[in-house]
Design brief:
The protein is of the alpha+beta class. It is built from two helices and four strands; from the N terminus they run ααββββ. Helix 1 crosses helix 2. The radius of gyration is 24 Å and the shape is elongated.
Length: 148
Amino acid sequence: MTKTAGCALIELMIVIAVIATLAAMAVPTFITYRDRSRVAQVVGSSEAIRSALASYAANSAGNAYPLTGAITDFSSLRLMVNSSGGMLPATAIFTVSNYASYDSNSDGVTDTYSMRLIVNGVPTSLTGSQILLTPEGIFKCTTSGNPC
């Protein structure tokens, strides 16, 4: 009786099938964690944005926030934040969807704002894919639109 060394083709195919099954289970989990980390990164940057806007208002006449037309995209926001003591990276991790400043008490001073950010590379079905910034806080928008 002679023994043959090595493994049969069917054994190799079973090993490949097991590895493929494990990979198929792991990849969606990895993608979910990646998307959540992107949202967390933008939330962290949002706090720097809020601080920079507060600093801008404190240094302006009448404690006014930037006018609505002053922030239109990531580049204009980055310029304003970095000049007011914050630090945003050179590459955009989010898109500025909307920025509006308001005069909440009709005294002629823009004393509040709202800014909507869209996290780059994250599906819109994920809670936090859109983030709302106000002087009162940072809010992760849900798929139903709440609290945004």
